[in-house]
Amino acid sequence: MGITFYETAVLFFCYSFFGWLAETTVATIKEKDFRNRGFASGPFCFVYGVTGVLLEVFLYELKGDAFFLFVGSAVVATAMQWFAGKTLERMKHKKWWDYSGKRWNFDGYICLQYSALWGLLGFLAVRYGNGLLLSLYHVLPETVGKAAIWALLAVGFVDFAGSLMSLSHIEEKLPTLLGWNHRLQRWTYALASAVSGRIERRIGRSYPSVLLGAEEEAEKSAEKCSLTQLFWLFVIGAFAGDVVETLFCRATAGVWMSRSSLVWGDFSVVWGLAIALVTALLYKDREKEDRHIFWIGFFLGGAYEYICSVFTELIFGKVFWDYSWMPFNLGGRINLLYCFFWGIAAVVWLKGVYPKAARLVDFILKKTGRWLTGVLAVFMALNVSVSVLALMRYDTRADKKAAESGWERVMDRYFDDARMERIYPNAMRQ
Length: 430
Known about the structure:
This protein is mainly alpha-helical. The chain has helices spanning 5-31, 46-59, 66-92, 112-139, 142-168, 174-178, 183-206, 214-221, 227-253, 269-282, 290-316, 336-368, 371-398, 406-414, 417-423, and strands spanning 105-106, 110-111, 318-319, 329-330, 334-335, 428-429.
C-alpha cells in the first residue's frame, strides 16, 4: 500500500478535525455550554488524526476482511486512547477523562462500549472513508492542495507547541534561558506567557480536573522517570530481550541464531522500546494488581508488535517474524500465545525486574555521572543509523540494484548479504 506524505497529512488533519467536532459537540450538549475538547486551541484533536493515519497504514492489508478489520481497529484505537490518556496524566498528574463510572472499563481510560465504537468507526474509515477523503483532496489543483497542507502543518505545529508549552510551564523558564537584555527576548517571553495563559485557561474550562495546585503538582512531578533513566532502561531492555529471544529459539527450535535488531551488539530494539514505554506509562501503577498490569501488557503488547511488524516491512521491505504457522494469529504478525507472553512480561518487569533495574541505573549514574550515558547514546545512535542504512541497502541489493552512492558502496563492503543473513536470519523479503 502506497500513501504519500500529502495524503497522510490530509487524513491526519481530517480526522483531527472530525474528532474535535465530535468531542466538542458531545461535551457542549452535555454541559449546555461550549467546550473546546481538543488538546490544542484550534479545531483539532490530534490523537484522532494520529489514530486515523495508523489505521490506514497498519490495517490496510485487512481491508478485505471485515471481522479482523473491525477487531484491529478496535484494538489500535483503544490502545491509542489509553496511551494518550496515560501520557497526559503523566504531564499533569490528573485524568483528562474518566470512564470509571461505566461498565467494563479499564483503568478509567478505556471501556468496552467505546472500544466497540472505535472498531466500527475504524472499519468505516479504512473501508470507505479514506478513499473518499483522498478523492476529494485530489480534486483540488496540486499547487493549492500542497499549499493548504503546509499551511495546516504550520498552524498545527504552533498550536500544539503552544499547548505543550502551557502544560509544561516552559514560559516560566524563558527569562532565565533568554535573559532580559533584549527587547525581542522580552517580547518573546510576554507573548509566550500570554499564549500559555490563554491555553491553560481554555484547558481548565474544558477539563476542570486537569488543573492542580502548584504544590501538589510539584510533589507529584518528583515521581517522574527521567529521560536518562528511560534511555538506560531501553538499553537494558534491548539487551535482555535479545538474550531471552535467543534462549527461547534454542529451547524451542534447537538452534542458536541472532535475534538482534542492530548490526553491532546484541540488542533487540523492539524489546528496548517496549520496556521504555511500559516503564514511562506504568511505573506509578506497579503496586496495582497483577491482572491489571497483565491485561495492559496483553493488549498493548499485541498492538505494539503488530505495528512494529508492519512498520519494518514498509520501511525495509522485509518480514522479520512470521507466526502464520501458529494458531490464532493475525496476518502472521501477532498471535494469541505471544500476547499472553507480553502480559506476563509486563508483570515480571514492573513487579520484579524494574525496581532492581532502577537501582542499577541510579548506581551507574552516581558512579559515572553523565559521560558514560553520553558515550552510550552516541554509540546507540550510530548503531541504529548504520543498521537502518544496512537494511535499506540489503533490500535494494535483492532488487539487483547496483550501488550508486558512497554510502551504498560502504554498506556493500562491510555489510554484504552473507553478514546480513547471519545478523537477520529470519528476515524474509515480502
